[in-house]
Every structure is written in C-alpha cells, then in structure tokens.
Amino acid sequence: MSGQVTPQVRRAAEVGPRETPQFGELLRWHRMRRGATQRQLADLSTISVRAIRDLELGKAHRPRRDTVHLIADGLGLTGQERNHFEKAAGGAGPELKLSYAAGPVSPPAPMDALVGREAEVTMLGDLLGAGNLRLVTVTGLPGVGKSRVALEIAGFLHREHRLPVLWSSASDQSAASRDTGSDPVSELVALALERPAVAAAGTALAELRGLVGDRLTLLVMDGYEQANVDADALSGLLRHCGRLRVLITARTPFQLPGEREFPLEPLAVPHRRADRDPAELARVGSVQLLTRCIGRTGFRLTAVNSPAVAEVCRLLDGMPAPLQVAASWFMVCSPETLLQYLRDDPFAFVGPELGDAGRSELSALADDERALLARLCAVDGCWSIADAVRLSSLAPAACARLVRRLLMRGVVRTAPEPGPGGFVVLELIKLLHADRPAGVPYLRDEATV
Ligand SMILES: Nc1ncnc2c1ncn2[C@@H]1O[C@H](COP(=O)(O)OP(=O)(O)OP(=O)(O)O)[C@@H](O)[C@H]1O
Ligand SMILES: [Mg+2]
Predict the structure, then answer these.
(1) For ligand 1, what atom is nearest to the CA of residue 110?
(2) Mean pLDDT throughout 342-361?
(3) Cα(143) to centroid(ligand 2), Å
(4) What local confidence, expressed as pLDDT, does residue 101 receive?
(5) Which ligand gives the minimal distance to the CA of 146?
(6) Where in the chain are the domains?
(7) Buried b / exposed e across 325-341, counting CB within 10 Å, b at 16+?
(8) CATH fold of 355-434, please?
C-alpha cells in the first residue's frame, strides 16, 4: 500500500496508539501508518468507506468477524499485530483481560516424572522463592533439559511458596500456534517484551504490569533468546513490579543487571567402574532416563547389558533429548548393536539436531576459547585446571577464566568421576572436532594459545 506519508502520519507512526486504544483508534493508527486513505483501505479490503469511517469514529463498536479479517488483510497485518488487532475488535478493547482470578496462574503440568536434578530445583527454587534472587537464566545446549527443569522449579514454587506462575513459551508464538490461537500469557508476554516491538507493545506491557502489580509472582520465559527480547522493557517490568521473579530458559544469558546465570549441565553419566553393577548404574540419572524411555517390555539392566547401556549414556553425554531418541532404538537393536551404530554415526541415530547444536556452539566460540578447547579435546578422560594450564601455557587465572566460559557454554562439563576440580569435554564436541571437514576450522588449535 503506498501513499504520501504526511507529517501527521509520520507522527502517528512514531508515537503509536495511546496506551489503551479503542478498536477504531487502532484501525485508524494502522491505516495512517501505512499512508492509506479510507478510500484506499476500502478498495483493498472490499469494505465500504462508510463502514471504515464509522469504525474509526467509534460509531460501530462490534464489527463482524469477517469484516475484521478483511480489514486486517487490507492493512497487511500479520503475526502479533494481526492477533492483537482482531482481539481489539472483540468489543472489549485490545486488553487480553487476563486476571489472577480467571487466568492460568499455575504452571503447565509435566508429562512425566523428573529424573535427577534435585539439587538444581531445590537451589533455584529456594533462591527465587524465599531468597532475594529475582532474575535467573538457565542456559545450556538444546535438549539438555532447561525447560523441564524450569517446569519443575515453577511447580515447586507454586506448591511450596504458593506463587502464581505466568508461563510464557517462545515456541507458542510460532506461526502455526498463532493460527490456532496461542495461550494468552505467552501472547501477552511476547507482545510486551519481544523485539522488534509491535504497535501494541506499550499496551501489552501496561497490562502485564497491571496484572502482576505488587504480587509475589513467578514469570517463566521459556525458550526466549536475548536477541529477541527488549531488555529495557524487561528491566522496566522488574523495576515496576517489585515482587516479580523471572525465570528464563535460553541458550545464552541476557546480561541484565541482577541476573544470575545458571548453566545447566547434562544428566550425570556413569563412571566406568560401575559398568558391571546394574544396581549402581540404575541410580545414575542418564541411565534412569534411558531405561525409563525404553518402550520394549521386559527390558532390564543386567550384568551382561550394563556396560553397553553405560557406554551409550556416556557417548550421548547424558543429554536427555538424544537419550530419549536412543531409547526408541532398543525396540529393534540390542544395547551392544546400538552402541556400535552410535559409535559409527551417532547423528544418523539420534537426529542431526544434536550435531547442528554442537556445530553452532563451536562456531560461536571466541578464538582463545576454541584454541584451549582443541587442546582439551585431545585429553582422554577428565582433566583439572592445572592440566589445562600445562596444556595451554596460559597464566592460571586466564586459563581458569577460559575454562569457566567453556563450562558456561555447555561444551565442557564436570567429570563423572568423584573428586573436585575434574572436567571433561563433551563427547559430542570431541567428535565434531575430530570429524570436522578439511578446511573447516571449528577449532583453530594452532593459532592463539
Ligand atoms: N531431568 C529430566 N527428567 C526427565 N525428562 C527430562 C529431563 N530433562 C529433560 N527431559 C526431557 O528431555 C527432553 C528435552 O528437554 P527440554 O525440552 O527441557 O530441553 P531444553 O534444554 O529446554 O531444549 P531446547 O533448548 O531445545 O528448548 C524433553 O522431552 C524433556 O521432558
Ligand atoms: Mg526448552
């Protein structure tokens, strides 16, 4: 839609609609932002000029649903803006009308029991519930279990501390779920906090602030990424709602004032000396998850299959999502056969996503991180900071700082063997490093250490 952009139009577009506009005002604002006259919009939407004028003037309050669709088409509205526009036409103004009395204040129910993670849930739950912590970001590789842990923490806070929980999933904002109608909390949070801001952001933020007020509340932002969130709006929300706690799951931290980053490691993997002891193996988190997900009836850990099961868990680094996929192969493979296949080509069996996640993590590393990681990939088994210092010839503080960054990024984890100070590089990362195609410097080991 083209048309001359008058100063009035430009000002309308810059300022945005007032905080709680009526539908007519919103319609006018969208039309003017596009530089269209009422006549032009009428032609584009096949709605009469008079009907558009009456709507803009507030003379017609409840337009028919198909009229609203046609106008939204004519305005070229999509996504959040369209959603909001259509809601505003519902006759109640653009407010989503969430309230603690009527709205969903408990977290979604988990589909199955949590394995392990007692320490993480208790610590973060206590800090968010009774402590002073107001903003926590749980980070880690895709499939490590961030959302599942957040679900458990939210459930714990709801149960033990009677906190209302506003749960917002970034994935609920996908085009598909928008078409089928997403959940109102996710929609409100996305409208209020996502970047780039849409016209309705100010209204949505005001509603979110009003909804939370000074109540002790947990807001979970699941799967949001720093690049897509308006940091100022989120900080402002935290400042305005003094008793709000925010729990985010994301690949990387948001780096906001007061934020506590919590890198989530994969589930515990067995150490080798337990390989022939089914009872001890059955207490290890990754083994518990794997065996629980095996659909085959009658499968049980034995002294014979235990070494292969333990090795599968180690090969997949105790990562829940790949372990779940691996479990499905037990329908057709023995543990020993599956292990063989996984050793040859794990991505063919657990899906390419794991490799993609590892590659994207490696390509995001800084040169000094890559250089150190490359040396650590050559170590068989676990290593300490002193080993890393020796291998890299870096000063201890500089080396320890790099190790901490690698740990935060999820490419290194604490060693399964007992004892302090031990770390390992994830098997996945070692594999990608060893298999990198010639000329692709995932890890440039020679240059910078
Ligand atoms: N401790 C656990 N106990 C039981 N199931 C788990 C556990 N951790 C993760 N899972 C399951 O593993 C799968 C992947 O976990 P989840 O979706 O939480 O990962 P994520 O880190 O949020 O991944 P993404 O970055 O892709 O969002 C899910 O099906 C989840 O229910
Ligand atoms: Mg998730």
Answers:
(1) 31
(2) 89
(3) 7
(4) 57
(5) 1
(6) 7-88, 118-263, 272-350, 355-434
(7) bbbebbeebebeebbee
(8) Arc Repressor Mutant, subunit A (1.10.10)
